[in-house]
Design a protein that fits this description.
With 289 residues, the chain is an alpha/beta fold. Helix content is 34%, strand content 25%. The chain is built from 10 helices and 13 strands. It has a 5-stranded mixed beta sheet, sandwiched between helices. Strands 7-6-8-5-9 form a 5-stranded mixed beta sheet.
Length: 289
C-alpha cells in the first residue's frame, strides 16, 4: 500500500519523514513525501510569536490532509497546537528523540557577562533570562544548518538537541540543558502523525508504529497545554517522564507582561489528571501574580 506523507521540506522535516517511511516499510507500506511550504517557511525573518506562534509550521501541512492531497501529515510534535482541526486525529506518536534544549557556542557557566544569545523561542528566552538576567537576546530563524551558521555572530544559540542528533551535527561547544534547568516545549523531540479520523486504513497503518510509552507521556503534556489554553500568549513548557510506576511532570509558565516565571514539579500515579493539575496550579499562580 502506498501512502502520501505531507511534510515541510526542511532537512529535519525530511529526516523525520524518511524515518517514518522506514518504520512503515517494515509493515509493507511505501511512503511518498508531499512537500508543503508553510507560513513559517515563507517568512524567515519575523519572530515566530508575531506571525502565528505554535501553529505556524503545521496549518498548511494539515490542509493537505484535509483536502486529501496527502494521506497523513508528519509534524515535529512541539509545533502542533492542542486544538487540531475537527476532521483530523493525532493517529500515532512513534518513539521519542531527545526532548531537551541545547546551548551551542558556550556552556552556561562560561557565558560572558552581558552575552549575546540567539533563539526564536520566547519559552527559551524566558527561562534563560531567569538564570542570567544580564544576557541580551536576539532573534534566530531558519533551518538547523542556517541557525548553526548564524551562531558565529553570537556568544551562543539555543536549539533543540534532537535536531542535532537526527542530522548528525556536532558543534564544537555544546551543553545539553536538563529539564530541571530549562523545561522543554510540549512534545519536543517527538514526531506526531495526523490523518483524517475516518480514514481507517491509514489509521491502522500508523498505529503499527506508535510507541505506547511515548504516547502516554505526550498525552499528559498535551493535556497540560490544552488546560493552559490554545489562545495563551504566555511562554509555556511541560515535560513528562516515567519514574518507576509514577509519572513526573515539570512545567513552566511565564507572565509575558511582567517577565515573572512560575514553575511546577509534581509526581503522580494518575496520568488522567496530572497535566491538568499542573496547568491549573500555574494559571492560579499567574493570576495571583
Amino acid at each position: 500500500m502506498k501512502l502520501r506523507a505531507a511534510t515541510r521540506g526542511s532537512p529535519l522535516a525530511m529526516w523525520q519523514t524518511n524515518h517514518i517511511a522506514a518504520l512503515l516499510e517494515k509493515y509493507g507500506y511505501q511512503v511518498e513525501p508531499v512537500i508543503v511550504e508553510t507560513g513559517g517557511d515563507k517568512d524567515q525573518v519575523s519572530p515566530l510569536h508575531e506571525i502565528g506562534g505554535q501553529g505556524i509550521f503545521v496549518k498548511e501541512v494539515q490542509s493537505f490532509v484535509i483536502q486529501e492531497r496527502a494521506d497523513f501529515a508528519v509534524h515535529s510534535l512541539k509545533d502542533l497546537p492542542s486544538d487540531i482541526p475537527s476532521g483530523l486525529v493525532l493517529a500515532a506518536v512513534p518513539e521519542r528523540g531527545d526532548p531537551r534544549d541545547a546551548l551551542v557556542g558556550s556552556t552556561l557557566k562560561d557565558l560572558e557577562p552581558k552575552a549575546k544569545v540567539a533563539t526564536g523561542s520566547i519559552r527559551r528566552k524566558s527561562q534563560l533570562a531567569e538564570i542570567r538576567p544580564d544576557i541580551s537576546f536576539h532573534e534566530l530563524r531558519g533551518n538547523i544548518h542556517t541557525r548553526l551558521e548564524k551562531a558565529k555572530n553570537f556568544d551562543a544559540i539555543i536549539i533543540a538537541a534532537t535536531a542535532l542528533e537526527r542530522l548528525r551535527l556536532n558543534p564544537d561547544v555544546i551543553e545539553i540543558l536538563e529539564p530541571d534547568v530549562m523545561v522543554p516545549q510540549v512534545g519536543q523531540g517527538a514526531i506526531g502523525l495526523e490523518c483524517l479520523k475516518d480514514n481507517f486504513d491509514v489509521l491502522s497503518a500508523l498505529k503499527k508504529i506508535e510507541d505506547s510509552s511515548t504516547r502516554d507521556l505526550i498525552n499528559i503534556e498535551r493535556s497540560f497545554l490544552e488546560e493552559i489554553g490554545a489562545d495563551c500568549s504566555h511562554p509555556v513548557g511541560a515535560h513528562a517522564t516515567l519514574e518507576g510506576n509514577q509519572i513526573r511532570i515539570r512545567s513552566f509558565l511565564s507572565d509575558s507582561k511582567t517577565g515573572k516565571n512560575f514553575h511546577d514539579n509534581r509526581i503522580s500515579s494518575n496520568p488522567e489528571t496530572l497535566g491538568k493539575l499542573a496547568a491549573t496550579e500555574l494559571l492560579d499562580r499567574l493570576k495571583k501574580g
